[in-house]
Amino acid sequence: MPLPLVIADTPLDATVTGLMAGQVEVLPWSAVEEAIAPQVLGLYTYGHPLVDAALLDRLPGLKVVSNYGVGVDHIRLPAAKERGVRVGNTPGILDGATADMGMTLLLAAGRRLAEGDRYARSPAFTRYDPGYMLGREIHSSTLGIIGLGRIGQQVAKRARAFDMRVLYHNRRRNEAAEKAVGATYGSFDDVLAQSDYVMLCCPLTDETRGLIGASAFAKMKPTAILVNIARGPVVDTAALTAALQTRRIYAAALDVTDPEPLPRDHPLLRLDNVTIAPHLGSATEQTRRQMAEISVENLLRGLRGQELLHRVV
Ligand code: NAP
After folding, report:
1. What is the reported pTM?
2. Per-residue pLDDT at 31
3. Does the Cβ of 229 fall within 6 Å of ligand 1?
């Protein structure tokens, strides 16, 4: 029996490849353009390729889109729904790892770790000086979380262990989450104005695209630090660059950028008050293994017409 045909944005890692072996035949993304496209039953999105109506129309036999990760902003969900294509993702299992990365970035930016590391390796470091590289306090400061969902709640728990006061803003107040993690609800403007650290943990949607732009930076404290572990386009990159260059805010720490990666000559890359990670939120061996297992299981279930482990539409 021929194996079901699946298109993926290859190369896939060894774990995903191993889990798919003998179960499906994987074709490269370019197969979307080829004569074989109508026979394709599954789409596996590994690194955020765009899945829009035009692409789905080239794959009339498609049953399932399985995403490696929780964020599905690169998949046009209404278009999939209209065509009866199921979309699966991997929520829940990556919350701890992503929240750990959020705290890693918060701590690194507040205490100027990346800048300090560069200095400690450089010839300029010749003697200890109590006056250099003073950072911002973390304990006893206020963290504002935009998006107190699964990941945001894990961040709040960690921040409480650092004796931080935790504020949050969602579109809907979540009293159960407030009680569980010790967070206080505020309007978007109040959270921005009162926070020493603002961490973005919301999905990228039409509503959150560009949410943190010039008017948001104007509301933040000049000592505030922005941490983005959501998606790059939630922040207006030009406004962020200007806010950091003019010291409108103190610093930023970014796991995600827009575009991603930034062009190598982008002015953000020349600033000392920004710490950047190459989208490492869920990048631990243990979490990525679980993401591989769930996303491949979603794919196989979708191909068999069974309910997915985690279904978005
Ligand atoms: P989730 O459980 O659905 O939580 C999302 C939270 O955002 C909810 O509390 C939601 O509350 C809030 N929200 C949605 N729209 C909002 C808006 N316009 N303004 C304010 N709050 C809003 O999602 P999750 O699993 O925590 O994941 C969140 C996102 O993190 C993902 O979509 C993904 O893009 C990103 N992520 C990044 C990495 C990484 O590697 N950096 C890893 C995993 C996930 P309301 O609905 O009440 O507004």
Report:
1. 0.97
2. 98
3. yes
| Gap between the Cα atoms of 24 and 6, Å rounded | 7
- Between CA 115 and CA 122 the distance in angstroms is 11
Residue linked to tokens 């933040």: 220
Position 280 scores a pLDDT of: 98
Q: Which atom of ligand 1 is nearest to the CA of 97?
A: 42
Domains of the chain: 5-93+286-304 (3.40.50.720), 95-276 (3.40.50.720)
- Give the per-residue pLDDT at 235: 99
How far, in Å, is the centroid of ligand 1 from the Cα of 205? 9
- Known catalytic residues are 231, 260, 279
Helices (H), the chain: 14-20, 53-57, 77-82, 95-110, 113-121, 150-161, 175-181, 188-194, 214-219, 237-245, 285-304
Q: How far apart are CA 226 and CA 92, in angstroms?
A: 24
Give residue 3 CA to ligand 1 midpoint distance, Å. 36
